[in-house]
Amino acid sequence: MAKHIGIIIGSLRKDSFNRKLAQNIQKLITGDAEASIIEIGGLELYNQDYDDFDQAPQSYKAFRKTMQSVDAVIFITPEYNRSIPAVIKNALDVGSRPYGKSVWDGKPALVISSSPGAFGGFGANHQLRQSLVFLNMPTVQQPEMYLHHVNECFDAEGNIVNQDILKMLKTAADALQKMLG
Ligand SMILES: Cc1cc2nc3c(=O)[nH]c(=O)nc-3n(C[C@H](O)[C@H](O)[C@H](O)COP(=O)(O)O)c2cc1C
Predict the structure, then answer these.
(1) How far does the centroid of ligand 1 lie from the alpha carbon of residue 112, in Å?
(2) What number does the ligand 1 atom closest to the CA of 115 have?
(3) Which residue lies with its CA nearest to atom 3 of ligand 1?
(4) Contacts of 21 (CB under 8 A, 6+ apart)
(5) Mean of per-residue pLDDT scores for the chain
(6) Contact at 8 Å (CB) between 74 and 67?
(7) Cis omega before residue 143 (within 30°)?
(8) Global confidence as pTM
(9) C or N terminus of the chain, fewer CB within 10 Å?
(10) C-alpha distances in angstroms, 30 versus 2, 5, 88?
């Protein structure tokens, strides 16, 4: 049966480089798998009361249902102040509850961070990985994906032109697909 990979993007910016990366990596998923972007910008800020009093917003219900249906997750994120953007942490928290019903549990993951700067979002990448350990998501270890100078990666249509970067993304996508069996 075809495997479904969900892609979560840590930026809400309309011209986001990370969204462009996501659109490029979608095309690199081959074989019996397909990938789609799962939007997280409409999720209310997590408040435990929603779950404790059975008042989860519609956005939570829809997100949790979608995430339950995916077999693996690709996180593509910028770094904000040497950490992960709040939107991505919020999505992790929403998906992790109600207690015992985490949508993340056991799902293979790939983490890609990027930056127009020189460090490629290393800090965000590893802070995200810290949460994924607790959420029990086996995560691709190699290749590590810290994409620096990401603003220079794309042509006018948003396609990645640098063959080395494309090759690296393909290797990472293949490593994730291998974990899916
Ligand atoms: C609040 C904020 C904090 C940022 N902090 C960092 C940072 O710690 N490290 C970094 O490399 N870039 C940082 N940046 C720059 C982002 O890497 C840059 O805006 C990038 O384009 C965001 O990704 P996007 O294009 O997908 O929106 C920061 C940007 C913002 C708005």
Answers:
(1) 14
(2) 17
(3) 80
(4) 76, 112, 114, 147, 150, 153, 160, 169
(5) 97
(6) no
(7) yes
(8) 0.98
(9) N
(10) 11, 11, 26
Distance between Cα 89 and ligand 1 center (Å): 15
Query: Does 117 sit in the ligand 1 pocket, CB within 6 Å?
Result: yes
Selected from 1.10.10.10, 3.40.50.360, 3.40.190.10, 3.40.120.10, the CATH number assigned to the domain covering 3-179 reads 3.40.50.360
* Per-residue model confidence (pLDDT) at position 1: 77
Q: pLDDT tens-digit profile of 90-145?
A: 999 999 999 999 999 999 999 999 999 999 999 999 999 999 999 999 999 999 99
pLDDT band at 38 (very low <50, low <70, confident <90, very high): very high
Q: Compute the distance from residue 31 Cα to the ligand 1 centre, in Å.
A: 34
Say which residue the tokens 């049966």 belong to: 1
**pLDDT score, position 6:** 98
